[in-house]
Amino acid sequence: MNNFSRIHNLRVKFDRLLNKRSFDSYKMDKKFSEPAYCPSCHAVYLNGRWQWKDKPQDAKTIICSACHRKKDNYPAGTLLIKGSFPGDHIEQIINTIHNEEHRESSDHPMNKIINESYEENSITVDTTDIHLPVRIGKALKKSFGGKLKINYAENENRVQVNWIK
Ligand SMILES: [Zn+2]
Questions:
Q1: Which residues surround ligand 1, an ion (CB under 5 A)?
Q2: Would you give the DSSP letter of residue 78?
Q3: How far apart are CA 87 and CA 101, in angstroms?
Q4: What's this model's pTM, rounded to 2 decimal places?
Q5: Residue ranges of the domains in the chain?
Q6: What is the distance in A from the centroid of ligand 1 to the CA of 121?
Q7: What's the CA gap between 88 and 23, in Å, rounded?
Q8: Which of 156, 157, 139 lies closest to 95, judged by CA?
Q9: Taking the CB of the first residue and of the last residue of the chain, which one, N or C, has fewer CB atoms within 10 A?
Q10: Phi and psi dihedrals of 30, rounded to 5?
Q11: Beta strand pairing call for 77-82 and 158-164
């Protein structure tokens, strides 16, 4: 084996390892004992799910999967907003995005926004989960009309939502 292919093989192995590790850490919710507490977002893991609660005294500290995704900038969902309407109604659009995030996250602490980027002709919202972008997209369509496209990928572990008006 020459040096180049050895380096290439190492690289492939390393990439696989990285992918495997990040995948596992996002899927860790079922593996650790409860109660647990995430110091980053203050969610509490109890009775098999993450909730907003006071930290139990005996809680173990663990970074939750949503905060891992946020830290790694590894979204599960993306909402792309395009068209001339959003630019002229930016406040209403931002309010809708944040209201829906608040409603979703109050019941499901693991579902939240990672990033929002506001460009001249588009808005992109990345989320930790696949439900929130769909929820925001549906709320936008209900309030303002327009066209909504929802595409799931990677065995429904990933979603791309486009809203155009
Ligand atoms: Zn967290």
A1: 38, 40-41, 64, 67
A2: E
A3: 20
A4: 0.80
A5: 3-70, 74-164
A6: 32
A7: 39
A8: 139
A9: N
A10: -85, -10
A11: parallel
Element (DSSP H or E) covering residue 153: strand 147-153
DSSP secondary structure string, 105-136? HHH-TT--EEEEEE-SSEEEEEESSSSHHHHH
Ligand 1 center from residue 63 Cα (angstroms): 5
Amino acid, single-letter form, for residue 82: K
Structure tokens at 2: 């020459």
State the Cα angle at 151 between 145 and 153, rounded to 5°: 160
- State the alpha helices, DSSP H only, in 1-42: 3-26
> Does the bond joining 133 to the residue before it have cis omega, within 30 degrees of 0?
no
